[in-house]
Amino acid sequence: MVDLATPLERIDGFQARFISKLKKLGIETVRDLLSHFPVRYEDFSRVYTIEELEPGQEITITAAVESIKSRNTWRRGLNLVEAELSDNTGTIRATWFNQPYIKNALQPGRIANFAGKVVISKKSGEIYLSNPTYELVSEHEHHETKHTARIVPVYSETRGLTSKGLRYLIQPLLKRLPEIPELFPVEMLESQNIPEVNSALQTIHFPETIEDAMSARRRFAFEDLFFLQLASALERMKLAERPALAVAESVELIKSLIAKLPFELTHSQKQSLWEILQDIEKPHPMNRILQGDVGSGKTVIAGLVAYATAERGAQTAFMAPTELLARQHYHTFNKLFSQYERGVALLTASEARISYGHGLESATTKTSLLREIASGKVHIVIGTHALIQKTVAFHSLALVIVDEQHRFGVRQRAALEHGKTLIPHFLSMSATPIPRTLSLTLFGDLDLSLITELPKNRKPIISRVVLPEERTNAYRFIRDEIAAGRQAFVICPRIEKPEESDSATSFIAREVKSVKEEHEKLSRNIFPDLKVSMLHGKMPAKEKASVMHAFQKNEINILVATSVIEVGIDIPNATIMMIEGSERFGLAQLYQFKGRVGRGEHQSYCMLFTDSSAATTRTRLKALVNAKNGFELAEQDLKLRGPGEFLGDAQTGMPDLAMKAIQNPDLVKHAREAVAALLKKDSTLKKHDAMRERLAVFRRDIHWE
Ligand code: ADP
Ligand code: MG
After folding, report:
1. Model confidence at 439, in pLDDT bands (50, 70, 90)?
2. Which numbered ligand comes closest to the C-alpha of 272?
């Protein structure tokens, strides 16, 4: 018997070549296949006679094949099949390109449905059918059509799997599937006005009307949003019961640390700090995200919280996405909190350093650093993913802070917990502004702290799109700024868009090549008298560190770099961000680049160089130029390109869900309310077996477990 969990290879009639193609799309079970929903529909439901046909119509006809021939056209490799079709009312020609097998499938005398668009020939003025979908009609038995004479599902076609092929697999499967239990109580279906699952599944693939299809889609969108939020709500409830080290607030210490900072905290920095301190005081783990625009000053908050934790003798792990950034955070902590005698360490794949305040700072060996961490003498450990290796054993880890990675998964967090009875508090920090509906959906299990303002001393960055003919002037301007003591970044894109088949290495190689070329050009021809250096991902970590160090000390005027410097780098004296080939970057990424300048009191500039005159490019770059803050830009980017692009698959694993959330803020709200109502009545889902099972599958699918 077939059910949702049945692997596709166990279904008779499924050919191995289909199965392997489906596997490449991650489709392995009946559930996976039936959840591969159409991206749109084509309405071929009206069956016409040939004499009724007019150019431009989308139609189905039932006709007999009068004649059919196949030939290769003058263009090499192009095959053309031409058929003469007729019914009682007339005849019409149909053509197919590069499908020579059609000649065998449609032999003269055969009767078939043909669905497609009626087009008019420019040469002869005759109408004909171009590439119609056909489906043989048997005169004796009546059977349901898949491709013609109905509203037809169109699937995203990838790697040799056509919509036709998918319809061919899905339709009979729907017929064979026994009744699936409905997950939602009848009252919920009624109050949400969504169809029951069995009919919704039929309808989303093979609808009678477009309205039915939309209503079925709404059901499945609701289902996803519901389970996503149910999973977060349960996660939140579970965490709330686990024990964590309560870090009692030390008001005195916090006050004295703040008093010694070289600046005054903004109101929302204070607010966020307070929210975090309140949280870690509790004997249950904090689960919080600190969101603030680039340059809003998240690092200092992380520092204050880490030192408050250290004051209680407990340890903090602070993870950054790159070695450069980890190193920068290490130096920032040593600078801002140097009067405070606590062990702070830097641990990356290539470096181990330790500091005990008052400038007592030096390199050490990894082995001895690990020993210090295990003994609890080092209280704050800053690093990259190296921090979560099994070899790193903490003495009393109470707080994990993660910089610039949205969902530094539950999995990594679990790695840090490994078997401990006390769960560390967790703080994630992100500059990627996520619209509220989306963040409720994607990060429903996290509490949110927001830094909504930039430090007072900031001037808004002046941004401009720079056209090819303005290049000389732009260089002149850069020279003036450097003469005034400032510094500039030059960001280079990949030379060309990577092909799908390109390996990650050649991808980096190209970026490196373009950096080298630009460095060569700037240092030889344009600014031979200035100090121009470069930074890219292929350089050894040591060399990168020393270049950054020199740039920090203003020993380098212009730094030509790849997107290595994308996140986090903080050089307040740099006031120019010049981006080559800016049309090749995503808006979120450009915004990150822009955020590298404007971090001090000097007026800063972001110059977007582009050779492209395409309207879409201009619209996107204009959006960046005009956006007042990251939130506004995020909204625009979502509109222009959709959440998949905006968030990036890798970061969330669920752009589909994000899409649903963005398009349906009401549905998100309804799902939230439904989850709350359900948990109020049955907080362990004891009475909802089907829901419990579905939740387990859902968690696995979104990689939470
Ligand atoms: P982000 O939030 O992007 O991580 P950072 O933490 O790197 O930003 O802070 C950017 C810069 O602003 C740093 O040089 C930091 O020292 C400085 N800064 C942080 N808070 C303030 C403040 N309240 N007033 C002035 N400068 C600040
Ligand atoms: Mg930062």
Report:
1. confident
2. 1
Mutation test of ligand 1: which of 319, 599, 604, 629 has the most ligand atoms closer than 8 Å to its C-beta?
Answer: 599
Please state whether beta strands 127-130 and 90-97 pair in parallel, antiparallel, or not at all (unpaired): parallel
Evaluate: CB of 297 within 6 angstroms of ligand 1: yes
Q: Are 195 and 189 in contact (CB under 8 A)?
A: yes
Which uninterrupted H or E stretch holds 42? Answer: strand 40-43
Q: How far is CA 127 from CA 63, 134, 305, in A?
A: 16, 18, 74
Q: Which atom of ligand 1 is nearest to the CA of 595?
A: 3
pLDDT single digits (tens) 638-658:
666 665 555 544 444 455 666
Q: How far apart are CA 540 and CA 260, in angstroms?
A: 36
Task: Write out the DSSP string of 71-131.
Answer: EE-SSTT-EEEEEEEEETTEEEEEEEES-TTHHHHS-TT-EEEEEEEEEE-TTT--EEEES
8-state DSSP, 522? I
What is the whole-number distance in angstroms between the Cα of residue 246 and the centre of ligand 2?
A: 26
For the chain, the average pLDDT equals 86
For residue 594 and ligand 1, the question of a CB distance below 6 A is answered with no
Residue to probe by mutation, ligand 1, list 261, 296, 300, 453, most atoms within 8 Å of CB: 300
Quote the ligand 1 centre to 585 CA distance (angstroms).
25
Report CA(299)–ligand 2 centroid distance (Å): 6
User: Measured between alpha carbons, how far is 60 from 129 in angstroms, rounded to an integer?
Assistant: 10
Residue that wins the pLDDT comparison between 338 and 438: 338
Q: 251-451: which CATH topology?
A: Rossmann fold (3.40.50)
The ligand placed nearest to the CA atom of residue 595 is 1
Q: Given this chain, do its domains 251-451 and 462-628 carry the same CATH topology?
A: yes
Domain ranges of the chain: 1-42+166-178, 46-149, 179-241+665-705, 251-451, 462-628
* pTM of the model as a whole: 0.74
- Ligand 1 centroid–CA 451 distance in Å is 11
User: In one letter, which amino acid is 692?
Assistant: R
The answer regarding whether domain 462-628 maps to CATH 3.40.50.300 reads: yes
133 closest CA partner among 109, 166, 159, 91: 166
Q: What is the DSSP string of 118-138?
A: EEE-TTT--EEEES-EEEE--
| Residue 635: C-alpha distances to residues 25, 327, 627, 629, 647 (Å) | 30, 33, 10, 10, 12
pLDDT of residue 423: 85
Residue 380 near ligand 1, beta carbon < 6 Å:
no
Binning pLDDT at 50, 70 and 90, where does residue 174 land?
very high
**Fold (CATH) for 46-149:** OB fold (Dihydrolipoamide Acetyltransferase, E2P) (2.40.50)
d(CA 164, CA 147): 7
